[in-house]
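thought: fold this chain, then report.
action: predict
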Amino acid sequence: MMEDILKGYEPIDYRDWILGDEARNAVNIKRLKLLEPNEIKIFDTAAPYNDARNDPGQAELVAYFTIKLLGYNSKGQREVAVPAAILHDIGFYFDHPTALEKTC
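observation:
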């Protein structure tokens, strides 16, 4: 059963994974062509706000694994899950709960 679930799974080759400042802009998942055009727009818009905790590339990894996990869940909605993954830490950038409203 586990073999069926993991059919087609390929682990990340971290030797090719770009880390650091470039990872803030989703360079790896863009290179792998995993993002839809609207998701690229969301990521590019959110990029300046995604590293509030000094963890460059973390949003990219969350988005990457979200996309991969969607392949194992037929009920998953990509149009909800991927933007949520990209934006999951966005609130750490803002120092006041209403500050985010000013960016909309």
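thought: worth noting. The CA atoms of residues 25 and 44 lie 7 Å apart.
final: tokens above.
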